[in-house]
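step: validate -> pass
step: tokenize input -> pass
step: predict -> running
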Amino acid sequence: MLDRIAKVNPRLKSYATVMSEHALADASAALQEIQAGRYRGPLHGVPITIKDLCYTQGVRTMCGAAVLKNFVPAFDSTVVAKLRTAGAVVLGKLNLSEGAAAGYNPSFDVPLNL
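step: predict -> pass
step: emit ->
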């Protein structure tokens, strides 16, 4: 999936941040846990993406707003924490309109909706 993202994202501009290293580490951990019989449930090992509105610990969260361009939260939002606890593999953060409410900020790529 990361190869596909690398191939099509330059045109689609879907991702604000691709979290390749995190995703590969989480996928490897999920594989080891599942093989050891420690299955967390239906999301364990499933690749997902998160809107760049949700806080992700140690990964910038811009919310489509130029003022937050360099903001890196110190914790995960509740939804991200629950997804990670369930074993989901976060591939990255998706672009969105400013604050998920207004138009797109001209400082950021506008995703192509096909």
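step: describe -> DSSP finds three helices and three strands in the chain.
step: cleanup -> pass
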